[in-house]
Design goal:
The protein is built from 14 helices and 20 strands. By secondary structure, the protein is of the alpha+beta class.
Length: 454
């Protein structure tokens, strides 16, 4: 077998966007063709090396870290085909979601039916981690996928879809990168549309007492809770044909506002009890008055990600949302010095049949909590995380695959009815464990050291 002709770079350090995880791969590659990816995989197999694919590095976890070969897909990002009549698009897997929306779909009068709150992520990354938006009648983003092409550990090209290799498809739509290198994705899109966004301040009890009514009152309902306060912003996004009329907060979108925000949380690290006051102040500046605006869908789906942060996000049965949020509020009241920064983002998704999707088999609420790292400062968060995880685990919570968590295969296997089936497919696709890393060994391996049913 010939040696790999694609030169790998030595000495490269990979760091995720939040600067919370870093690694030094043995060799780093930026392929531009499928043939180059196959060469890298074949060489790795010949030398018994592990391979990990990375996208934009946005995941605030160690899911992309490796000490083996790293394949960075940033240059593997081209449009393959667009079908305006059927509203479908096929792109290489390293295409950023924002580039797909702005540079490909919008000029053709098309849009994604639903996207996450950030779009600086690759198509493959979105699929592999079960990334989601919000909307009770919308699934995670992978439910918009029609077809996936990938390269196996044997260096073979495989296609899967709703009608071809269907079990593989249901596994590949949330695969954690464990099944192979995704090279191309075909997505079902829609004609471009605008959204009418209505933001309304209220209290946590007001929204939770009538939660089902609020969720059903809008296509895309989301709430933002300011921890250490009773303040909540209810946000409804609904389709409209009205003209764009976007009124945004001056504070949030200015250089001064951004640095006031960062400085305030930096200062609070010396005075922990001030976090509640800071949260109340920002709520007053940003959200204390109702706001309505109309814009293209992407602009209102997306939410400013701010500066680097620790993030954890768990999926719970939708009906458990009031219980979980009220228990978390009780814990925060008892621990006023914990650095619970704003905001806690609460979103809703329709259940699906993707094997290890966090929304598998049930309508789901995702609750995302954060602790910022102002000016890179390390802010203690372990107690807050542990309290939150204890609450969501009691109601059958499943961790968001892209976010930081410490669950192992032993705990996770009980949460997914098709866990064993996914592991059998993984074993068949990659019997030597080429695509494993420490993260995947932790979340897929059982106590006996075997991966799934291997």
């Amino acid at each position: 077998m010939a040696s790999c002709k694609i030169p790998g770079e030595q000495g490269r350090t990979f760091t995720n966007w939040a600067s919370t995880f870093t690694c030094k791969p043995e060799l780093y590659f930026e392929p531009t063709t499928t043939e180059e990816i196959i060469q890298i995989v074949n060489e790795a197999r010949r030398l018994s090396k592990r391979v990990k694919v990375c996208g934009y590095g946005h995941s605030p976890s160690d899911i992309a870290c490796t000490d083996g070969y790293m394949i960075d897909m940033r240059r593997f990002n081209q449009l393959i085909n667009i079908d305006e009549k059927n509203c479908t698009v096929k792109v290489q897997s390293g295409c950023l979601l924002k580039d797909l929306i702005d540079d490909v779909l919008e000029p053709h009068g098309m849009a994604m039916q639903n996207i996450a709150s950030i779009s600086d992520v690759t198509i493959a990354g979105v699929i592999c981690t079960g990334t989601h938006g919000t909307g009770a009648n919308y699934g995670i983003l992978s439910t918009q996928v029609l077809e996936i092409e990938l390269i196996t550990a044997a260096g073979e090209e495989v296609t899967c879809s709703h009608t071809e290799n269907t079990d593989l498809f249901r596994a590949a739509c949330c695969s954690l990168g464990a099944l192979g290198v995704i090279t191309a994705v075909t997505l079902q899109c829609e004609p471009a549309f605008k959204l009418h966004q209505r933001q309304q301040p209220c209290t946590l009890d007001e929204v939770l007492d009538n939660l089902d009514e609020h969720i059903s009152s809008s296509e895309h309902f989301v709430l933002y809770w300011m921890p250490h306060t009773e303040s909540v912003i209810m946000c409804r996004n609904d389709r409209t044909n009205e003209q764009v009329s976007d009124v945004s907060s001056w504070f949030w979108n200015t250089f001064v506002g951004y640095h006031c925000f960062q400085f305030a949380y930096w200062l609070s690290s010396f005075f922990p009890s001030s976090v509640g006051f800071i949260n109340r102040t920002f709520f007053y500046l940003l959200f204390s008055k109702p706001l309505e605006r109309i814009n293209i869908s992407r602009n209102l789906f997306n939410f400013a990600k701010g500066f680097p942060q620790y993030v954890t996000d768990w999926a719970i049965p939708r009906e458990q949302t009031p219980t979980v949020l009220r228990e978390l509020r009780t814990w925060l009241r008892e621990n006023p010095n914990e650095a619970a920064h704003f905001c806690i983002e609460v979103r809703f998704c329709q259940g699906d049949n993707i094997m290890i999707s966090p929304a598998y088999g049930r309508d789901t609420c995702f609750i995302n909590i954060i602790v910022y790292r102002p000016y890179g400062k390390l802010i203690p968060y372990a107690n807050y995380w542990a309290a939150y995880e204890n609450i969501v685990k009691r109601v059958g919570g499943r961790p968001h695959w892209a976010k930081a968590h410490q669950e192992t295969g032993k705990e996770l296997a009980d949460l997914y009815p098709e866990w064993d089936k996914f592991c059998e497919i993984r074993q068949k696709m990659d019997p030597q464990g080429m695509f494993l890393n420490e993260y995947l060994e932790r979340v897929l391996c059982m106590d006996n050291g075997a991966t799934g049913n291997a």
